[in-house]
Amino acid sequence: MKFKKCSALILSILLVFGLAACSSNGGNGKNNAAAPANQSSEAGGNNQSDATAQSEELKPEGGAKLIVWDGKDGVPFLKEYAKKFTEEYGVPVEVQEQGAPEQMQKMKTDGPAGLAADVLVLPHDNLSEAVAGGFVLPNDFFEEETKAEFQETAVNAVTKDGILYGYPRNMETYALFYNKDLVKDSDLASWDDIVKFAKGYNDVSKKKFGFMMQLNNFYFTYPFFSGYHGYIFGKDNTDPADIGLNNEGSVEAMKYFQSLREILPMEAADATTDVKTALFQEGKLAINLDGVWNIGNFSSLPFKVGMVPLPKFPNGETPTTFAGVKAYYVSAYSKYPNAAKLFARYMTSKDALLKNFEMSGFIPARKGMENEPAIKNNPMVGGAIQQFEHSVAMPSIFEMQQVWAPMANALELIWKGEDSKKTLDNAVKSIKEGIATLHK
């Protein structure tokens, strides 16, 4: 079985894929009337003062102070832009580095203890778990503005059971970054071409590699499964009783994945984000499979960087990547929910998202930003948009959280040379056991 691909592509440069977890536009906001579908992208204004004017009715609590959690790639922007929020509202903000998995785990313990963040940054596939755990509050006060100003599919991604929870920030997927001084377009035409190039470029003794990717992270290895007709859950990722990660296609996918050790002779655990990024920035890694959030990081290197979608596999199939929406969420445990809602709104203004793109490469989920010069003129954005055409949303059902760890373990073993079929069978068994515990 193959995932259902979206057909509504390139509605704008910012959103070119549909999300499998789309839901209704209802909510618990101050007015439940849905925003018109053709609402102008200018609704809500073009600058920070307009965003502030819209929030005049909502005031931060007296003595409010906020803690905000985000992953490593989002922290630099937050630390800089939070100062502007503090200047405008008089609310101190402390930004702490916490990845999404750590945030979800800490909410279970630190939330009830009053130690958790007031604002979280999470990918859309964590929303089901966050809602089930009672971790997040609805985006109620700014519901109308959010629906009017952000792409419909982004709004749907952060909506659960008809209730809008998130404040959409950016769209994500991944593709191939490459050093234009080292790599020709013809070297990227197919995976066979990538392998051929890497064989000629590699010099492991000097830490020079033609190609590198995170090898034990299912998020990045999913294209191998999709390119060989493997799948996660049946019925377009809505049926956890049907798991396709050990079907015939998945086994073939992992055999091909395993063969790439010839051009990347290192342990899976050693191909970390930090190692890979450093090698690429130093000009020692020529082709880097990584996320579009690195566009900002790679825009000021001493060499020109290009970005292209993943090419076809030897079987002639075009791989599909995961895509997602990251958003701000207000913690249900926050002592200062008004201040937290204001912060989430402030950080998703046009000015804030533009600054975030310039610093981090995050492609905004807000309407009408495709013509901003910083976005329009970036040579990497085009490749990202092309990859969005061949992307599907990460499964957002609660059971997806049981997939990551068993698959990470399986990928490490397969990369070491273990039998693909046996290893995937064991991984699926572990996934099923994990899912079973959720329903006890």
From TrEMBL:
InterPro entries listed in its UniProt record: SBP
Extent of the signal sequence: 1-26
Statement: the UniProt record of this protein carries the keyword Lipid metabolism: no
Region (Disordered): 30-59
Gene3D superfamilies: Periplasmic binding protein-like II
The family this protein is said to belong to: Belongs to the bacterial solute-binding protein 1 family.
Protein name: Extracellular solute-binding protein
Organism: Paenibacillus puldeungensis
